[in-house]
Amino acid sequence: MNAEIISVGSELLLGQIVNTNAQFLSRHLAEMGVNVFYQTVVGDNSDRLLSTIQKAEERADLIIFTGGLGPTRDDLTKETIAAHLGKKLVLNDEAFKGIRQYFLKIGREMTENNKKQALVLEDCLVLPNENGMAPGMFVKSKNKFYMLLPGPPKEMQPMFEKYGRPAILNVLDRQESIVSRVLRFFGIGESQLETEIEDMIMNQTNPTIAPLAGDGEVTIRLTAKHRSKETANEMIDKVEKEILNRVGEYFYGYGQTTIAAELVQKLKQQNKTIACAESLTGGLFQSMITAVAGASAVLKGGIVCYTNEAKEHLVDVSKKTLDTFGAVSEQCAKELAENVRKKLNADIGISFTGVAGPDSLEENPPGTVWIGISEKGKESKVVLLKLAGDRNQIRNRTAKYGCHFLLRTCQ
Amino acid sequence: MNAEIISVGSELLLGQIVNTNAQFLSRHLAEMGVNVFYQTVVGDNSDRLLSTIQKAEERADLIIFTGGLGPTRDDLTKETIAAHLGKKLVLNDEAFKGIRQYFLKIGREMTENNKKQALVLEDCLVLPNENGMAPGMFVKSKNKFYMLLPGPPKEMQPMFEKYGRPAILNVLDRQESIVSRVLRFFGIGESQLETEIEDMIMNQTNPTIAPLAGDGEVTIRLTAKHRSKETANEMIDKVEKEILNRVGEYFYGYGQTTIAAELVQKLKQQNKTIACAESLTGGLFQSMITAVAGASAVLKGGIVCYTNEAKEHLVDVSKKTLDTFGAVSEQCAKELAENVRKKLNADIGISFTGVAGPDSLEENPPGTVWIGISEKGKESKVVLLKLAGDRNQIRNRTAKYGCHFLLRTCQ
């Protein structure tokens, strides 16, 4: 089954809002094994909407609309579709009851135009709106399916999950299961990763292998189709294994996880605590860690030692080190990591010092980064990175490299 | 002039990412007086892209593409357009130099597929990419204009603002000037702000007044049209003055600034330094400050005291305070702010303690936030907030409230 998403609303064409609806629906449809080849945004204009529908009918079996179901004059999605399909609009008692109750609840009088929201296409399956007034609709006409959903994501998303998705699955009568798995990598560029598995990408059929770069990371989505869900999973297992044989050292987790979340989980498992001294990253590393619920079990705390004064007085970096080697140095990173670990009585200390830019510092260009790691009873490690990008890309990638190295430390 | 936006990328059709590019470009085009009647998303598939281009040519004068300019095999936007327009792809020396320099800088070997990124359409205006490798292009063919932009927003947005927008304005030959100004507010909700200026919004004509909420903030975009740019600016000045008369206490800056950037600038002007003790925010406040270039002039540093142990040993909060009032208390916030200021010898100390959730802490529900501010020679102030939202919304809004209160302190 091929689907197409048509989002209706001039506010989208004026750039006033982002079309998160198209993403939400596309992700669900992909998981359901429904191909989406086009997403279109069109304004609150009946002629242009009609021509968009006609084009979509040439290439899709299922057309999903979002927006234009509201009470005002410029909401015309269902009116346009009704005229196009030759279907009447009829009052839906359930929806009308809901609208009247809503106005009772907020203590305002219902204006006449709100009644329009309770009109639905004849012969349609009504999709109840539990978070708003306008109901959704699902209707078949000449072997094509049409689903109408409201525009506000807070209404559309729960309606689709509870009523829209099951309605589509019901007509899919699927023979095959579709299984998807996302592998997440850090520390390797998209083109390098693709080069490493180029032969696999060239010869991909089932599972498909789709790399994607973003936010300093790369993901690979593996998708397999098979009658048996178990077999589809085994097919993915096999490809995953081969990929990890080649680039496994950069792999850190599956799906929607973050490298910081993986680190927090790993530290919890090993019952280890960390303490941080952040110069270059200025709190960003600890902020990533504390964004994870439950971080308090592993993060003892830390120091943002943005100035040399703070490095010396709060983390006891020796004046000699700062004078002889500078703040952007292996020695400084080492002392920061060791001292912050001891100060906070943690198992592992980690430090970040370097140059985020835009200006150079102590004759080091932006992107020069030292990360120190000190573990109780072990020799300290210090890593030098040379990162490209602007100030915030350098800061962001440095903090993620911190997670990356700590994950390796905990292997 | 009518424009159409075509975003190319299977990751959009799979719902892996949101199409913020279409919003960004639509907003800019609306401001430039260019109508956008359609946005389309199509996958990395040459045939489907071609049919989308042909449809767009029927209804638009300018077609803007985002995505598909990268190094990998599935990036095929420019190849498809070149074949369609009968234009060759030629190596752009400037872009190729940039790509080689990038790899030299990061100390990795350039894989062969990266060279592809330096190929551009013959006879095009090359739009330099100052934040990545693939350049953009602007080309005319048979009275239609085509603009090709990279997919990653961090590359596309600055490229469009610096090179794409002027190139379009240049062919528009416009008689009127269009002037836009964005006012940024924090600490007031969208609906409250809209209520305060409802009469102005109802009666808007020129300038237009467009409020927009996002990321815990509200912006108002004022746009005026006039033959004289000076007069358009004066028209905006007048409306801005009236708005700030009503909700000025929440206003913090113009355009693309951030509340942290405004704070850093204000502190610099007043030659003041700050020190921070972060419990709840776990480094996020300092990370926002250090994201601003030049933050080292105002941020002495700080302590992430996520545990009570760290509060006691690193920031000298008295055991009695922690035992009697708890960590989530006015007293604790006060001691944290005062002690961190003294420890780092700063002019102002600021502290954050509270509950980000998902769990309650010391019988306080998530969203309970204390912010302490201590100024040399003045009595300390402590503010209690009760914020709604999930863990990261609470953290984010708390850090921004920190900036908000410090900006007021520096008035």
From TrEMBL, chains A, B:
Ranges where the MoaB/Mog domain occurs: 4-170
Identify the CDD domains for this entry.
cinA
Query: Which InterPro entries does the record associate with it?
Result: CinA, CinA-like_C, CinA_C, CinA_KH, Competence-induced_CinA, MoaB/Mog-like_dom_sf, MoaB/Mog_dom
Give the signal sequence positions: none
- Pfam families per UniProt: CinA, CinA_KH, MoCF_biosynth
The similarity annotation says: Belongs to the CinA family.
Q: Which PANTHER family match?
A: NICOTINAMIDE-NUCLEOTIDE AMIDOHYDROLASE PNCC, NMN AMIDOHYDROLASE-LIKE PROTEIN YFAY
Xref: HAMAP family: CinA_B
Name of this chain's protein: Putative competence-damage inducible protein
Organism annotation: Bacillus smithii 7_3_47FAA
